[in-house]
Amino acid sequence: MQQDKLDQTSSVRLDKWLWAARFYKTRPAAREAIAGGKVHLNGLRVKPARVVKTGDRLEITRGNERFSVTVIGISDRRGPAKIAETLYDESEESVARRAREREERALRRRVAPVPPERRPDKRSRRRIIRFTRGQED
Fold it and tell me: Rounded CA gap, 74 and 9, in Å?
């Protein structure tokens, strides 16, 4: 029933589809990503007005994440997230790669140095300066 509502058109603009599939919050954000080369359709860099059809392959880079998806549904309206997920099929290697990269980022965050809770006071600053100049008591 819901899928019938979504397949009212056989093709739609790429920026509109990315917005409807919830890859970007707004159409202008989707347009900027496409113009910036963050979205490739069938391996080619395209413009926001390019028509998307079922069976097209998309490579989407959003922040640190890279998605490899195949278009399986067309919609020009943004709906619930559950319905938006039915518009595309993400490849298994894409899902595995994103999970692996997410784990790597989490590990890097755990190992990263923790910034101090507050700035050093006057006495601490003087001790730091003496230490860096090699004049520690």
Answer: 7
Spell out the domains of the chain, with CATH numbers in brackets: 2-102 (3.10.290.10)
Residue 37 gets the label, from left (phi > 0), alpha (psi -120 to 50) or beta, of left
**CB 73 within 8 Å of CB 92:** no
- Regions of the chain with pLDDT less than 50: 1-2, 4-7
Four-point Cα dihedral 66, 70, 72, 74, nearest 10: 60
Q: How many CB atoms are located within 10 Å of the residue 26 CB? A: 11
Nearest to 41 by CA among 74, 71, 77: 71
59, β-bridge pairs: 40, 68
Flag whether the pTM goes above 0.85: no
**To the nearest 5 percent, what fractions of the chain are helix, strand and coil?**
45, 20, 40
CA distance 122 to 7: 68
Rounded distance between C-alpha atoms, residue 31 and residue 4, angstroms: 27
